[in-house]
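Below is the record:
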Amino acid sequence: MTEQDEDLILYGTQYVQILMRLASDPECPKDYYCLTILTSYCQGKLARRQLKAIEEIEKQIIGFEGDTTAALDKWRADFLTFSALATHPMPVSETVADALAFFLLVGPHRILNFNKISESQSGFLHYIASNESYREYCYVNKETGFWEVSKTEFKEADVKWF
């Protein structure tokens, strides 16, 4: 495993509370890094609507008893809000759909261009987050609160050189 992939070792519900503790420890030299690992792992589970993993993550978050930082508190509140939509879908406002799509595609730590593309006649809001390597899409149905995400990677042939 390369150093670039070391964070993937910590992708698992059994590490949620450990990462929360380290992310909140001002003495931890990798506190921010631990928060990014935590958010990336949990965002992926939420984006793909992996309900069993989401429910286990919720239990870990709710059961955490350590001190927290403002950044961790914000992430925790957002995750619990949006995970509730995964387990108990309901209609959402456009403002909630915007926040959900941003949380799923970008979150607090990734640097991507984020835009709402359109609203379909069927009530789906379409979002895009992109950089020079890929595009991610999120589709949120305001009437049901259901969402789906997809990703397109650019191939060298897709890039037009000027």
Q: What stands out?
A: Helices lie at 16-23, 31-47, 51-63, 70-87, 94-105. The longest strand covers residues 134-141. The chain has a mean pLDDT of 87.
